[in-house]
Amino acid sequence: MRIILIGPPGAGKGTQAAAIKGKYEVAHISTGDMLRENVSAGTELGLEAKGFMDAGSLVPDELIINMMRGRLSQPDAAGGFMLDGFPRTVTQAEALDELMDEMSLALDAVVLLDVPDETVVGRLSSRRVCSSCGAIYNTKAHPTKAEGICDVCSGGVIQRDDDKEDVIRNRLAVYHSKTAPLVEYYDKTGRLHRVGAAGAGDAVRRYLESLKDVK
Ligand code: ADP
Ligand code: ZN
Question: Does the annotation count 160 as an active-site position?
Fold first, then answer.
């Protein structure tokens, strides 16, 4: 299976991808996670990307496309992948189409997780992540058992810098101007599936699981 998840920040792309990863035995590839790893490791890419990320702006296409070219040719992606956070611009989508052509691969589905802006702001401002294992929590919907401590690995649970409200508003504006045009890009070629993702997430999970039966 080769699937792309698109949707505004906070639509639940990362959560859903992590939840169904085992079912499909595909690589879960999150550009946000990859970039954050580069920032923590202090790589050249991380240094270039950090300012854009902190402001809630997009990292330049060229950097992302190079990073993804390398990532998609890793052995674990050969059996399929679920892309979370990429592509995020029409330029990136075109580059992905080219890359997949070169590799003689086809996309199985592009799934849009549809969520209203107000829901996004509510969710992201209460989102917390484990700084060690990446587990995702929510102070309202899914709090940690002990305050600030990860249920999974006992690591420290924190708020991402870009989950502060003014940055969230900027990320949403960027989503509407740069990423929303992808919906039409994929719809035109009949590859888009829309799923309402404002609820608890079960509908999205069931939908993603059902793609396997279609295939
Ligand atoms: P979100 O919760 O907004 O989906 P991500 O973890 O996917 O957040 O991404 C965090 C940040 O990393 C983005 O705000 C952006 O700066 C950068 N980023 C991630 N993926 C891309 C991409 N495909 N193109 C450009 N920038 C990206
Ligand atoms: Zn953890």
Answer: yes
Count up the domains in the chain and report the number. 1
Q: Would 192 be classed as within a structural domain?
A: yes
In a domain, 90, yes or no: yes
CA distance 148 to 158: 7
Query: Could you tell me the strand order of the sheet in which 157-158 lies?
Result: 136-138, 127-130, 157-158
Catalytic residue among 2, 36, 88, 128: 88
Looking at the CA of 15, which ligand is closest? 1
Express each pLDDT in 119-175 by its tens digit.
999 989 999 999 999 899 999 989 999 999 999 999 999 998 889 888 899 999 999
Write the CATH number for 172: 3.40.50.300
**Annotated catalytic residue within 36, 123, 128, 171:** 171
CA of 56 to the centre of ligand 1 (A): 8
**Cβ contacts of 122 within 8 Å, gap of 6 or more:** none
Does residue 148 sit within a domain?
A: no
Structural domain for 94, as ranges: 2-116+166-213
**H or E segment and range at residue 101:** helix 90-102
Residue 30: band (very low, low, confident or very high) from pLDDT cuts 50, 70, 90? very high
- Write the DSSP string, 37-99: HHHHHT-HHHHHHHHHHHHTPPPPHHHHHHHHHHHHTSGGGTT-EEEES---SHHHHHHHHHH
Nearest CA to ligand 1 atom 12: 32
